[in-house]
Design a protein that fits this description.
mainly alpha, 5 helices, about 80% helix, rod-shaped
């Protein structure tokens, strides 16, 4: 019975997280008009910078959703499962931190590409 109660409370939260992540995700080609391979082969650094900036925004949104999930676990603990609630919240926060770190790396790549000159161009 406890398992069923737990599933009833967790499943809607996970469904919401997956739904939001699915809505936030766009294909790379839709957001830039080119695939990442095409951008690399064309040496289109401004478009690559925009691609990485878009990726950073999406990753930060995912981090925010996982943080909200952690808060949900903390605000809606199950009776007799305090340790599990804390573990679930910590796990969600670890995922959020991973997404935040990836977003920082994408921002760094965007900044790097903004400073690059087109291939073969000399100043």
């Amino acid at each position: 019975m406890k398992l069923m109660t737990r599933l009833v409370s967790v499943v809607p939260v996970l469904g919401l997280v997956l739904f939001v992540q699915g809505c936030a995700g766009m294909s790379d080609q839709q957001s830039t008009g080119m695939s990442p391979q095409q951008m690399i082969s064309s040496h289109d650094h401004p478009r690559q910078a925009n691609y990485y900036a878009d990726q950073a925004r999406e990753l930060r949104e995912k981090a925010k959703q996982w943080e909200l999930t952690a808060e949900f676990y903390e605000k809606h603990p199950e009776p007799d499962t305090k340790a599990d609630t804390a573990q679930h919240a910590a796990h969600c926060r670890a995922i959020a931190q991973s997404y935040s770190k990836a977003a920082d790396e994408a921002d760094a790549l965007a900044t790097e590409h903004r400073t690059m000159r087109p291939h073969g161009m000399v100043q």
